[in-house]
Amino acid sequence: MDTAFSNEDLKFQSEIRDFIKTNYPRELRDSINSKRKLGKELSREDLTAWHKILGKHNGWSAPSWPKQYGGAEFTPTQKYIFEQECAKAECQYIMPFGINMVGPVIYTFGNEEQKTQHLPGILSGEVFWCQGYSEPGSGSDLASLKTSAVKEGDHYIVNGQKTWTTMAQYADWIFCLVRTNPDAEKPQQGISFLLIDMKTPGVTVRPIKLMDGSHEVNETWFDNVKVPVENLIGQENMGWTYAKFLLAHERSGIAGVARSKKAIERIKQIASSEMSYGEPLIQDPAFKAKIAAAELELSALEYTELRTLAKDSAGKGPGPESSLLKIKGTDIQQAVTELAMEAVGYYANPHLGTTLSNEYVGPDYATNLSGTYFNFRKASIYGGSNEIQRNIIAKMVLGL
Amino acid sequence: MNFDYTEEQTLLDNMVTSFVRDNYDWDTRCNIVKSEEGWKEENWKQFAELGLLGVPFDEAYGGLGGKSADLMIVMEQFGKGLVVEPYLPTVVLAGGLISKLGSEEQKNSIIPEIISGNIRCAFAYAEPQSRFDLNDVKTSAVLNGDDYVLNGFKSVVFGAGMASHLIISARTEGEQRSESGITLFIVDTKSEGLTLQNYPTIDEYRASEVIIENLKVSKDNILGKVNMAYDAIEEIVDISTIAACSEAVGILQVLKDSTTEYCKNRKQFGQSIAKNQVIQHRLVDMMIEYEQAKSILYMAVTADLSNSDERRKAVSAAKARIGKAIKFVGESAIQLHGGMGVVDEYMVSHYFKRATMIGVLFGNTDYHMKRYMTLTQSGISSSDEAISVSVT
């Protein structure tokens, strides 16, 4: 048992650190921070600028991708270090839809033309992807999805509605699960994996406002959308297999350990400034105990993640245990966003950045912490709700 | 970075696992805990033959030079078998103190005897008023000629009844709660002035109340320096806490696995109760708690224990977090076993009781939570830069 970094790992760590220091644009950090504080929507440029910089540097935008497809092919330890350093420096995180989701599906199941067409744009960050999975009637029961794709000549005609499409407002492409065989014996057997250009006539995106006022997700409508058959990934009606691969494939970082650590650090700083009973809030036994509980949980989770990574690097591959990382990781993210909101007392109230008020009020550190708390209720619901994750563990790990 | 055992550690793990499998089946264990002695000397001899009694000791004294990870391997397997022989009190706790503080002469005379299984030791530190505070020592030791005279009372001393020697913490100077002024004495359990009141514990181990009345101890039998024992006591209790946490993780694994099996087999309303989602999710949460407990144990075992601040922080984090897991996994195991959970005859309650008492040992969850907080949340200064960013 050895958790010390090797000299090589340490060298790698300082290489990453130096790279971030020299290359993460100060203006980007300032722009993102000031928008976040006012609860303002990040622009496509905000979301992709860092991705584009990493994309020009040894495939660092794609830590897990094999070198042959232009990725960095980091070892699990390197991935861990990379994520830690990016979180410490508060770099904008890379949108997962291209790099972590559709990219690996394309290089694993796609044909040569598809690889050539799509992988470079995903790597460089020039092409923005979104995910078309959920539908109004198909949330946890994803396999019941109804969006249909009917083959007519060399096209599929797609009709239906997807929902919760994150950042579809910026997307150039969407990867969709569509029903190609409504008569299949099992619902999972009639699903295909289709890539759709968002500029195709008949695609409409409508915003869904979340409870913090943010616009992250959308409804995406398909009205007789003509999609070339070349955009089918793998085989028709095999889409469910690819979707499952996608879910199990990229789990490193899913727990968000490094970012939660950083967030706890910030809460401690806030709680040192906030006063309660005439003393800094950080001295309050009840508040202190909650911070400590979050820290312990996070410390345990960090080692759970390291154990998973170590298993991964031994070629044993991440299994359904990654559901554990999702459950615990989001639990902690939610606990932490709640603590941050709690720390600022009354200044949880102001809702800035709306059309009604564009002025800063209250301490600088307090802005939008309540918005973030409300926003983060999503975490235990998305990506397979935490109840669904428990079902997965019950079936796949405990054999129930 | 890896969490694999070395070749030696794999051998050690296999050895302890087969000992427990071959010598510690449930009926055998029941007979041991019901016996007058409460342990089996034959098992102890076998520990000696297998080299287990030498795991943490320096090679210079015939030990294996093992570290916390090696003790973890032994204790985890002992936990799985609910092995009651006094390994933790003798080898880890008392043995640790002797290794840390003993003179060359003391180490040369005592350690090989422990390793060969000829003697056992126990550490008498807690007092009725001290609760978990190692610095709260009323038992007094007063110099009288070449001897110290000890008077006082020690509470719940594990393994004392099986020990040939006791290490006693006593106050040679200072106030009742002062860290300085504590001295360790090593004495024969049959010494005049020592009275042991032996009893079984709720989890079927053995402990003793130790009454000390005008106990004469020669200066030669001081362990370490006069007045200066506190740091070593804290360190060795920390190391022993990791060992106790390892035992707990072994127990939690049994509780989680056996409860899962039980729920698969138990049929009600015409089907296995594990078909109910409410049961499945409880079992999943037990598994998650177990994994988190194991992870934080690994954190503690791989921490830099030679750095005292890091050691304190890691140990208290592990004990507090594992304490929480013990409560959840233990109580859930009993609940899901239904009526079978609450009877003495079935195994699960015994694992639950032992895990719960490990929760108390060396300080409970609240105690370690407070220690952890004291170590991590003092002297935070507000920095002007990072503070202004939101929390996502």
Q: How does this model look, in words?
A:
The complex is a heterodimer of chains A (400) and B (392). Chain A folds into three domains: 7-94, Butyryl-Coa Dehydrogenase, subunit A, domain 1; 129-247, Beta Barrel (Butyryl-CoA Dehydrogenase, subunit A, domain 2); 251-396, Butyryl-CoA Dehydrogenase, subunit A, domain 3 (Up-down Bundle). In chain A, 44% of the residues lie in helices and 14% in strands. Chain A has helices spanning 7-23, 26-37, 44-55, 76-88, 96-109, 112-124, 239-249, 257-273, 285-313, 322-343, 369-375, 386-396, and strands spanning 129-132, 148-152, 155-163, 173-179, 191-197, 203-208, 217-228, 275-276, 279-280. A four-stranded antiparallel sheet of chain A has the order 2-3-7-6, with no helix packed on it. Chain A has a three-stranded mixed sheet with strand order 1-4-5. The longest helix of chain A has 29 residues, at 285-313. With 392 residues, chain B is of the alpha+beta class. Chain B has three domains: 7-119, Acyl-CoA dehydrogenase/oxidase, N-terminal domain (Butyryl-Coa Dehydrogenase, subunit A, domain 1); 122-228, Beta Barrel (Butyryl-CoA Dehydrogenase, subunit A, domain 2); 231-376, Up-down Bundle (Butyryl-CoA Dehydrogenase, subunit A, domain 3). Chain B contains twelve helices and ten strands. Chain B has helices at 7-23, 26-34, 41-50, 68-81, 87-101, 104-115, 230-265, 277-302, 308-337, 339-342, 347-360, 365-376; strands spanning 121-124, 140-144, 147-158, 165-171, 182-188, 194-200, 206-218, 222-223, 267-268, 271-272. Chain B has a four-stranded mixed sheet, with helices on one face. In chain B, strands 2-3-7-6 form a four-stranded antiparallel sheet, with no helix packed on it. In chain B, a hairpin with a 2-residue loop joins strand 9 and strand 10 (271-272). The model of chain B is unreliable at 379-392 (pLDDT under 50). Chains A and B meet through helix 2, helix 4, helix 8, helix 9 and helix 10 of A and helix 7, helix 8, helix 9 and helix 12 of B.
